Amino acid sequence: MLRFTVRMTFDQSDRGEISEILCHLTAASRQEPGCASYIPHLVEGEACTVLIYEQYVDDAALEHHRGTPHFHQYAIGGLYQKMRERQVENLTAVC
Fold it and tell me: How far apart are CA 25 and CA 31, in angstroms?
């Protein structure tokens, strides 16, 4: 199982658009075979920060996600165009 978070920062003025993009991306991503979890969050106290928790059953499922039309439309063509910063943290489950 692959688990990671993606933290992105945006301009305050883009918050509404970013939320809309995330809703579309989330709905489509959760329908993918191999996507175990896809949960976007607005970070409390940081109005311009989004944190997405993602889980995929294996590398092939993650690669499939990155190749989907909705990823290209909403992530690459939307979020990536608006973000100021992006950090990815890979996670290992303890139990």
Answer: 10
